[in-house]
Every structure is written in C-alpha cells, then in structure tokens.
Amino acid sequence: METLGSPVVDPTLLPDLAGWLAVNPSETFDEYAHSAIQLDHFFVVGSLLWPNLVRHRGGLFLEGFNVNRFNQWFTQSSSLTAVERVMNHRHMRDMLRSLDDAPRAVLVSAATLMQQCWEARLKQLSPDVPTKVEMYQTEHDVEITFYTIRTDKMNGGSG
User: Fold this and answer.
1) Do the Cβ atoms of 142 and 107 come closer than 8 Å?
2) How far is CA 157 from CA 16, 48, 60, 78, 129, in A?
3) How far apart are CA 117 and CA 47, in angstroms?
4) Residue 159 pLDDT greater than 60, yes or no
C-alpha cells in the first residue's frame, strides 16, 4: 500500500486534535472529523475552500463581490489584475479566528490548503482562463489572493 500526499498539518500543532489523538491513539483524522465537525461548519468551511466566483468586466472575483468597491479600486488603479489581487485577497487570521494564536506553521498549512483548493476551483469554473493563486507571508499573518493572468494589452497597460 502506498499513501499519496502528506498530512495537511502536523496534528501536534492543533491542541484539540492532539488531545483527541492522545486519548484515541489508533484513530485517524477521519474519525476526529466524524466526532468533531458539525454539519453547518462543514459547509461554511467548504465555501471558504471551494468558493463560488463572479465574472465582471473580464475579471474573476470571489462571491460577495461588490461593484461599487470594484469601481473605486479600478478608478485608482486602472489595472484589472491589481483590482483582482486586492479584492480577492484574504488574511488567514481574519477568516479563521481560531488561528489568532496559531503558530506560523499552522497559518502556512491553512493557506497552502486554501491555495490548492482555489487553484482547483478556478480550473473547474473557468478552465480557459489562466489564473494565479498566490500565498504570501507578512510579519503577523499569511495572506492569499488570486488573479487572472493577462497580457499588458488585456490589462489596461499593466500586468
């Protein structure tokens, strides 16, 4: 038997999971999920990892897109790529309050999982549009965003 992939995060970095595994050493992530995840949490987390998109003026945006905010950003920048980057960017600590005191390794693991999910979702919903999902670290957080890859001509002069 060959295991493909690797654990999303080191379970010892997650206190609830580590405690549960200490009491149930022969159990797996799946069994923990069955006992700990409530149905509403399942769908909320699913919507963060597998978001719906909005197409507007040649750009792709996360669901919840605001046209007025788009117009404000586009007036300031006139670069559709720059507007996508700003409007689609998320802070891991803002999305998941339980990460407020999390070690950097947990933040990076959460953002990496989200990056991989967003890449797959973008390919599923818009397979003919080249996109880039970026994760970057700041001093206190890890952030993630995505944007459409376009030529300078398609982007109002900047890419």
Assistant:
1) yes
2) 49, 32, 18, 8, 19
3) 11
4) no
Alpha-carbon gap, residue 10 to 18, rounded angstroms: 9
- Comparing 29-43, 60-74, 110-124, the range with the smallest average pLDDT is 29-43
The answer to which of 16-25, 41-50, 135-144 has the lowest mean pLDDT is 16-25
CA distance readout (Å), 8 to 33, 65, 107, 109, 120: 14, 29, 11, 6, 16
Tokens of 53: 């998109």
CA nearest to 95, candidates 142, 35, 159:
142
The region, left, alpha or beta by phi > 0 then psi within -120 to 50, assigned to residue 107 is alpha
DSSP, residue by residue, 2-26? ---S--SS-GGGSHHHHHHHHHSTT
9 Cβ contact partners less than 8 Å away, ≥ 6 residues apart: 105, 106, 109, 110
